[in-house]
Amino acid sequence: MLQILQTNTINSTPWTLADCILRLGPRLAKMSITELAQQCNVSEPTVSRFVVAAGFRNYTDMRDSARKEKLALKSSGFHIPETKLSLVKNEPREYLNFFGRELNRTMTDFINNADISLFDQLAQAIHHASRVFIFCFSSSRLIANIIQTDLARYGKIIYVPSTSDEQVIEAKQLRQGDLAIAISTYGYFVSKFSATIDIISNSPADTALFTQNPGIPETYLFKSVYAVTKTNNPITGSYILLLATEFLVRRYAETIGDDC
Predict the structure, then answer these.
(1) Which of 78-82, 102-106, 111-115, 244-248 shows the lowest per-residue confidence on average (mean pLDDT)?
(2) In which region does residue 189 sit, left (phi positive, over 0), alpha (psi from -120 to 50) or beta (all else)?
(3) Which residues form a coiled coil (predicted)?
(4) Fewer C-beta neighbours within 10 Å, C or N terminus of the chain?
(5) In percent, how much of the chain has pLDDT > 70?
(6) Strand order through the sheet with 158-159
C-alpha cells in the first residue's frame, strides 16, 4: 500500500484507497467490502478492481491477509519473537545487545562462507544479458535501486517496474536474451505474487532468484538461484542481503566495469 501511495498522484482513486486502508490498519479485517467502499467514498466495483491491481485475488483475500497480520502484527512485521521485541520498551540496552550479537553472528557467517563465484556468476549474467529486469516488492526495492543506480554508471541499464500492474506487463514482454531477477529477501514476494512469478518462470528469458533465504520452496521456478547465505536469519532484517548487494555491485565495478 505504501508503494501505491508513492507511485500515484495524491487524491487519485488508487492513492485514496491505499491511504484509507493504511489508516484502517488491522480494523480492515472486520470490514465488509461495502463498509470499506463507504469509508473511502468509492463504489464496491472500484474497491474490487483496486485489490486485484494491488496483488490480491479478491477483497476476501486482502481482508484475510489483514486478519493474519493482526494476529501476529509485531512478530511478523519485525521478524522477531515478541518476547525479544518487548525488550525495546522494557530493556532497550539489552535489546540492542541481543540484536548486535545476532547481527554480528549473521554477518560473520556471511563473510566467512560467501561464495564469491556465485556473485561473479550473477555479475556476468547481468553484464551479458541484452536487457535486465528486476521484480521485487517492499523493502527489496531498496536492493533493486542500489543495483540499478550503481550499474547505470557503467552503462548497464536495469529496469525495475514499480507497480504490480507494471510488473505483469513487463513480465509478459520478456524475451530470449533477457535476464529477469526476482529479489525476495524472505520469500514473501515469490509466494504472494505467484501469478507474476509464473509469467516470469514461463518466459523465454533467463530467470534468477536473489535472496537471503535459501529455504524458499519456489526456487525450482528459477533457472538460477543466488542465495547469499546458507541459513535464513530474519531477526536481523535485510542487512545481509544489503551487504551482499553492495559487494555484488562493487565486484561488478572492479571486475567488469572497466571493460564496459
Answers:
(1) 78-82
(2) alpha
(3) none
(4) C
(5) 91
(6) 158-159, 131-135, 178-183, 206-211, 224-227
Q: What is the DSSP letter of 54?
A: T
The pLDDT tens digits of the residues spanning 60-76 come to 888 877 666 554 444 44
| Closest-CA residue to 183 (of 151, 145, 153) | 145
Hey, what's the cell of 251?
565486484
What value, to the nearest 5°, has the Cα angle with vertex 4 and ends 202 and 151? Answer: 60
pLDDT at 115 over 90: yes
Residues in Cβ contact with 134 at an 8 Å cutoff, skipping those fewer than 6 apart: 144, 147, 148, 158, 159, 160, 181, 182, 183
What does DSSP assign to residue 17? Answer: H
SS3 132: strand
Query: 147 and 129 in contact (C-beta within 8 Å)?
Result: no
Amino acid identity for residue 231 in this structure: T
- Nearest residue to 227 via CA among 187, 254, 193: 187
Query: Could you tell me the pLDDT band of residue 25, with boundaries at 50, 70 and 90?
Result: confident
